[in-house]
Design brief:
Blueprint: E1 6-16, E2 21-31, H1 37-49, E3 55-57, E4 69-72, E5 78-84, H2 89-98, E6 99-106, H3 109-123, E7 129-133, H4 136-144, E8 149-157, E9 160-165, E10 168-172, E11 175-178
Parallel strand pairs: 1-8, 5-6, 6-7
Antiparallel strand pairs: 1-2, 3-4, 4-5, 7-11, 8-9, 9-10
Length: about 180
């Protein structure tokens, strides 16, 4: 018998001053048995940074052909494709061909740095791609906040993210390795 996903309920109060976006989100996150709290919380941070009423978590780890999050338009076209980790060039090429905007969030420290040095020369041609590194220490601090029910006030200002929970505030400063060309 297969092990089932663990369900987490999250309430986010997002004040994104950079984008002038202020909204509450009630989310259900299914953590795949192979996923740890660090990766799940990295997905949550990616949601916070790209919050939109139509942004949703996909089956991600369970379905290799889907990103971790995406936002589609009313016709089903993929507006934003968000992957976490260190995808290979083939997956990046496929995502860039299917979506208007692709964002990759790396979050695993030294291995992410090595991945970036290796893949960077091969992905410069993708104009609709952004690659962002989430500092390992901050994401590990977020993992400590993981509970089955979570409530996080989140503030984004001048590229910095503050997420509060359980009497602790985690400050995250995403590092932009590659920007989408506008």
């Amino acid at each position: 018998m297969a092990i089932k996903a663990t369900i987490f309920r999250v309430e986010l109060n997002i004040a994104d001053i950079d984008r002038n976006y202020f909204h509450d989100h009630k989310l259900t996150i299914a953590r795949h048995p192979s996923e740890n709290d660090v990766r799940m919380m990295a997905r949550l941070v990616a949601f916070v940074l790209n919050a939109h009423e139509d942004l949703v978590f996909t089956q991600g780890v369970s379905r290799g052909d889907e990103p971790d999050l995406w936002r589609k338009d009313l016709n089903g076209n993929i507006e934003v494709w968000i992957d976490l980790g260190q995808p290979d060039e083939k997956r990046i090429r496929k995502a860039c061909g299917r979506a208007k905007e692709v964002i990759i969030y790396a979050y695993s420290g030294n291995s992410a740095n090595a991945w970036w040095k290796k893949i960077n020369p091969h992905i410069t041609r993708f104009k609709n791609l952004s690659v962002i590194n989430l500092p390992t220490d901050a994401i590990q601090e977020m993992a400590v906040l993981a509970q089955r029910t979570m409530d996080f006030p989140c503030t984004i200002q001048e590229g910095e993210v503050w997420i509060s929970g359980r009497d602790k505030t985690v400050k995250i400063y995403p590092i932009r390795w590659k920007e989408q060309e506008r």
